[in-house]
Structures are given as C-alpha cells and as structure tokens.
Amino acid sequence: MNVPQEAPRAGLDEADRSALRELARTMVTELVTSARVRAAMESGGLPDREFDAELATAGLWGIETPEEYGGGGASFRELAVVLRELGSRAAVSHLTTSAVLCAGAVLLGGSREQRERWLPSLAAGQVFGTAALSEWYTNPPTGGVRAERRDAGWILGGLASHVLNARVSDLLVVGATAGPDRVVAVVPAQATGLTVEPVAMTDATRCVDRLTLDGVFVPDTDVLAVGSDADRLLGALANRAAAATAADSAGNAERLLAMTVAYAGEREQFGRPIGSFQAVKHQAADMLVNAETSAALLDDAVRAAATEPATCDVAVSMAKEYGCERAATNAGVALQLHGGIGYTWEHDLHVYFKRAKLNEFLFGDGRWHRGRIARALAGTAGQRAG
Predict the structure, then answer these.
(1) pLDDT confidence tier of residue 383, bands split at 50, 70 and 90
(2) CATH number of 14-128
(3) What CATH class is the domain 132-229?
(4) By CB atoms within 10 Å of each CB, which of 35, 123, 213, 289 scores lowest?
C-alpha cells in the first residue's frame, strides 16, 4: 500500500484552483437544473449519467488521478472544490463515490499494476465505483464483512450497510476483518455471491444500498492491502469520505443562505421586505457565519487529506461535525424564513434540507466525530504531561 510512501501532492496554485472553481460552478449552475435533480430523485437517486459524462469530458472526473493514468494530476483539495459545487445544487452524481472512494482507494493503496488496470477507466468516467465504509465508523471499528484466506485469495462473507451507489457501480471497495487483521479488496459488481439491495432514504438525491457477501472469492490480484496497510488505507478512506461529505454540506449551506437572502428581499410583510426586519437580519447573519466557518474548517481538512490522508483525523472530524451540523441548522432556519412555501413539494428547499440531514449521519455522525476529536486531544495532552 502507498499511503505512507507516496509523496504528498500540493495540487494547483490558488489562481488555478479559483479557475477550477469557476469552471465547476458554471457547469453545475447551467446543467444541474431543478427539473434534472427531480428527475433523478424520481429514479431513486440514481446518478445522472449525462451530467457525469459532461464532468468527465471537462476533465473533472479524474482531476486527482496522476497524469500517467489519464488524469489531471491535481490533489484531493481540487476534487473537494468540485464536490462543494455539486453540493451547492444538490447534484445527483457518481463522482462523490467513484472518484473519492473507489479511485481514491486504488490511488492510495494499489500497486502499479492495479493502478494501470483501474485508474484510467475510473478517471475517464467509463467505469464507476464505490466503497463500503459505514461499519468502520465505530469505536473500535469492527466491520460487518469477514475474510478467510483461501488458495491465492480470500473468501468474503457478511453484510455492509448504507453503501452509496452500489447498485450502479462496476467496482466495490470492501474492507473485511480476518482475525486480528484487516483486508481491503476490490470486488466486481458481478461477483458470484454478491447481492445488492436498495435501502429507502428520506434524501432522494442519493441511492443507498445494502451489500450481502456470501462466499465471494477475491484473488490476490484484486487485494489492495492487508494488515497494518489495510488499517491505514481504511483510515485514509474514512477521512476522505468524511471530508467529501463536509464539502457537500459547505456548498449546501452557501446555497441555502443565497436562497434565503433572495427570498427575504422579495417577500413583503406590513408593506416592506421581511429582510429589513432586525430578527430576520440576525438569523441571516448566523447563517452566514455558519457557512463561512464551515468553509474555513473544510479548507484545512481537505488540505490535510491531500497530503496526510491517514493522519488528518482531527482536521477532518472538525470539518465534518461542524460543517454538516451547521448546514442542517441553516436548512432549518431557511425553512422558517421561507414560511409555508418552504415546506411544499413544489419548492426546492426541502431537497436541500433532506440532503443536509443525511450528510449529518453519513460517514460518522456528530457524536462519533466529536469522540474522535476528544480522544485525539486527550492523547496529545497526555503526551505533553508525560
């Protein structure tokens, strides 16, 4: 596995990153319409393949993938820029799992042969992937899948819940326990013994599934990491997933603020816009503070995740816990300030509200991330005292 050995990648400079943000923002604003999002919601949250193809054509799908494998050669920090813009319009995309989790796992843990085998097609948006991580957000992480050594490979069995986009993925990265050790493997979606079942969620902009593995054989050529290498890879993927969710919530919080400010300037009561009332101004100001603070924490988290993916726990947990909770708070305030219209199906506000609420629980809820921060700080204090 390459997490400890791989040289950190700083990514683009600030000017190029700003240009990337403008490109992503323009594409998302023009292509991710309310009608398009609602159509995807009606399909059960299946990723919008046409939109994903547009992202791939623009080079955004493989922006983090090294140039030698057909990508843009940037870093996770640049990928997070795109994810934030996707969140700002509740885009229904496979990018959030395929690039962040599947391609990320191969990039961080794969051998050169495995990278050459999978990264070019993942970077081009020709192959889609995801990862089963939910069971690893426990203390200590246990996992719901077991692995047993067999011939030149491993036999996997067990359950993995709340896996994003599994039913529409070609490759699934699965972590499993093997006695005291762990194994991380890439499982083809058509593998014998693998069953995928949809899970109903309130947020209809994402599709969530449950995996059942019954005697799934994975050859050694498809195994990314074993033992301590697997622990580091799973830790890195957990951080990437949490940071990506924080990026989605940061975009969500900004969009909710913009929608609320615009509505408060148009809606009149007692002969004046409601945005002129002091109470409304205070709530809008709180929404702004929430969005800007979340963005600052996110920037620290993605910078750390780009260079130290397995050891950036505190920065990522701070961004995930605060950013997702504050986005949900902004959603609640937005509903209140929009009055009855915000609760209607015809208005888009409920789409952002439900997405923000699911983000609070994806890849570690607030309690889990606060606990991780507390343990890390307690450990640091103990070292200083010693």
Answers:
(1) low
(2) 1.10.540.10
(3) mainly beta
(4) 35
